[in-house]
């Protein structure tokens, strides 16, 4: 008795799962907390840009959201290196001049992109959870194709980090025992660490090299940046809250809510 076998592939229909997800854990908690954290940063940033005062004379504290101050409308001590290249014509809050530099750097940051894609756009909100969008084009069309300019925002962020470091050192020189001086210094350290932990920075230092042995200095820089890059996510959050905290503290001192001698 003969037996015939067929080599034809067996077609299996894809499982039709009508529920949004089969996950039973609290998968929604992470995107919710991310949404609240980023929203708080956005709301505070808009408020801080238009809030005054932002400078404490004598202690040389300047709020990070208002630095650098580049117009004659700025208090004289708050001007970067005492200069006012924007002259008398600019009378709007100083934060508007530099908002796009650190803001653009964070907006196009690889980690933040993942964060607000998941928390604001739900694309997707979590692993193994359906997203509400029926079409996916990635970052190949406007406006998301503009994310590719992240590297250029990185160069601007390096300048902003250097300015905030200068502000912190200036505050330490004038008020070495002031709490605000050390708060500004901690914020500067976190801002610079977050900036250097950027994926673009890692690529720029030595990401395109084929032979590390021929470029020992760049290899050492790449190794250092790679260690920071592994902490990019916690540094992103720590620097975000540190810049808000430092900015708010300086404004409280400038308003007299915190007594200056103890600040």
UniProtKB/TrEMBL annotation:
UniProt keyword terms in alphabetical order: Membrane, Transmembrane, Transmembrane helix
Transmembrane segments: 27-50, 89-112, 152-173, 179-198
Name of this protein: Succinate dehydrogenase
């Amino acid at each position: 008795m003969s037996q015939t076998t067929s080599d034809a592939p067996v077609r299996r229909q894809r499982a039709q799962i009508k529920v949004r997800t089969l996950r039973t854990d609290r998968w929604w908690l992470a995107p919710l907390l991310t949404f609240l954290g980023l929203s708080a940063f956005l709301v505070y940033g808009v408020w801080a840009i238009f809030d005054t005062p932002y400078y404490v004379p004598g202690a040389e504290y300047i709020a990070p959201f208002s630095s650098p101050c580049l117009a004659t409308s700025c208090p004289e001590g708050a001007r970067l290196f005492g200069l006012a290249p924007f002259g008398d014509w600019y009378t709007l809050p100083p934060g508007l001049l530099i908002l796009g530099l650190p803001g653009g750097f964070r907006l196009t940051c690889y980690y933040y992109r993942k964060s607000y894609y998941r928390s604001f756009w739900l694309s997707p909100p979590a692993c193994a959870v359906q997203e509400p969008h029926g079409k996916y084009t990635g970052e190949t069309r406007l406006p998301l194709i503009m994310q590719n300019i992240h590297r250029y925002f990185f160069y601007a962020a390096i300048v902003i980090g250097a300015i905030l470091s200068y502000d912190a050192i200036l505050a330490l020189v004038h008020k070495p025992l002031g709490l605000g001086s050390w708060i500004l210094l901690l914020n500067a350290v976190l801002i610079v660490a977050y900036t250097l932990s950027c994926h673009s920075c890692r690529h720029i230092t030595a990401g395109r090299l084929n032979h590390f042995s021929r470029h020992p200095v760049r290899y050492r820089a790449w190794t250092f940046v790679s260690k920071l890059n592994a902490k990019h996510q916690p540094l992103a959050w720590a620097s975000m809250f540190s810049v808000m905290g430092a900015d708010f503290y300086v404004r409280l001192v400038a308003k007299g809510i915190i007594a200056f001698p103890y600040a």
